[in-house]
Design a protein that fits this description.
Length: about 400
């Protein structure tokens, strides 16, 4: 759900940073075909054109593969049919031999070279340069070694845009390896390690994710094979994945009053009854009882909690030994007790749930691997907090 709901022809309430609408795209890998469909629906429904005519400001954010869609939308490149067809072609070549398993960087560079020609000589195009440098484009990368997020929103030339996109998509070792930014010298890699879905849950934000367990505004209601992140779907499934993203975006826009039901019915693509059903495993995972069971198995967090605490113990004790801290062995005994699997399992699922919250808050890389290890959906609604409410809360705290 959006954090706002307005009529299609009405005014969108501006957020604190003066953007009337933010559209964010998550990390996706080869599932970016879902993003292409969602972005094409956003273009076809006329929402972006109408907001531009009304003087509304729109911001596009992206992490990893989502950054490619954000760049296209922010720079006015709205032909995602061509992007889909190119991706299908690259995917077929990639899947033809295991020798191409670590060559995705070549496909990415080739796609950028042939599809982003309008961004070349950006410094000689003041209108386009101003359009993407007014805060309307945000590319998320991860700064190493501390796994901190970095938002790149200034692009003085074509090379700056390409470098930011390559950094955000640098899912080592599949899509190149970490490198240093030419502007700051920071060592960076895939943005999905720090932020999977940018600005998710913020006011006036449409967030898009291809994962069915996501709490993003636009996401599939059925199971989409997770292994398609690194192993592209076949040509037929690629078309279906594009159509799924297209229809899901239209449904979300209609649900929140941004387009009419007549427009959704007019633009919607035919739904396939055999969507992703060729695999027995996928059909099994799409069964409602199985989905419900997987979404509530918090016990999967027990081994993750053990691993995370083990890392804490190893790093913490090494630091304390080097600093000759007197509490070293006391803390070691307490941490080992916390790590005990018997202690974890004996405390019940509520105990494991607390550990999962602790891991999610303190371990950035966990945000990427959480959907693969367990699949419950976060159904909590995020209240919209205005700046005035934040100030009042701060005063009460003081």
């Amino acid at each position: 759900m959006f954090t706002f709901s307005v009529p299609y022809c009405g005014a969108v309430v501006p957020s604190d940073n003066a953007f009337d609408l933010t559209v964010s795209f998550s990390a996706a890998g080869w599932l970016q075909l879902y993003h292409f469909g969602a972005a094409q629906a956003l273009v076809d429904c006329g929402l972006l054109d109408k907001m531009s005519q009304d003087g509304k400001r729109v911001r596009f954010c992206g992490s990893s593969a989502g950054s490619l869609v954000a760049v296209c939308l922010a720079s006015g490149l709205h032909d995602f049919i061509e992007a889909r067809d190119s991706t299908i072609m690259y995917g077929e070549h990639y899947a033809s031999s295991w020798l191409f398993f670590f060559c995705m960087i070549n496909y990415l560079k080739d796609a950028i070279k042939h599809q982003w020609t309008h961004l070349m000589d950006l410094e000689r195009k003041p209108d386009l340069q101003s359009m993407i440098n007014n805060g309307s484009l945000e590319i998320y990368v991860t700064v190493l070694p501390y796994m901190k997020k970095k938002v790149i929103d200034r692009f003085m030339c074509y090379e700056d845009v390409v470098e930011a996109a390559l950094a955000s998509c640098c899912m080592a070792p599949f899509v190149g390896f970490p490198f240093r930014l030419s502007s700051t010298g920071e060592f960076v890699c895939d943005g999905g390690l720090a932020v999977v879905t940018p600005r998710i849950g913020e006011p006036n934000t449409i967030s898009v994710s291809p994962f069915c367990w996501s709490s993003a505004t636009v996401h599939p209601e059925q199971f989409v094979p997770v292994w398609w992140v690194v192993r592209p779907p076949g040509g037929a499934n690629s078309i279906k994945l594009f159509a799924l993203g297209y229809n899901n975006m239209l449904e979300a826009l209609e649900k929140n009053g941004l387009i009419t039901s007549e427009m959704r019915e007019k633009l919607s693509k035919p739904k396939s009854d055999t969507l992703f059903s060729s695999s027995k495993l996928v059909r099994f995972l799409n069964c409602r009882p199985v989905c419900a069971l997987l979404s509530h198995l918090h016990i999967y967090m027990a081994p993750i909690g053990c691993v995370k605490l083990a890392i804490d113990v190893a790093l913490g004790q090494t630091k304390r030994v080097l600093l000759f801290c007197n509490q070293t062995f006391t803390d070691l005994r307490r941490n080992c007790k916390k790590m005990s699997l018997t202690n974890l399992c004996g405390s019940g699922l509520s105990r494991v749930s607390h550990i999962s919250e602790h891991v999610e808050q303190s371990l950035c890389i966990f945000r990427v691997f959480r959907p693969i290890l367990y699949g419950w959906k976060n159904t909590e609604t995020r209240p919209v907090v205005t700046r005035t409410e934040n100030n009042s809360r701060t005063k009460r705290a003081r």
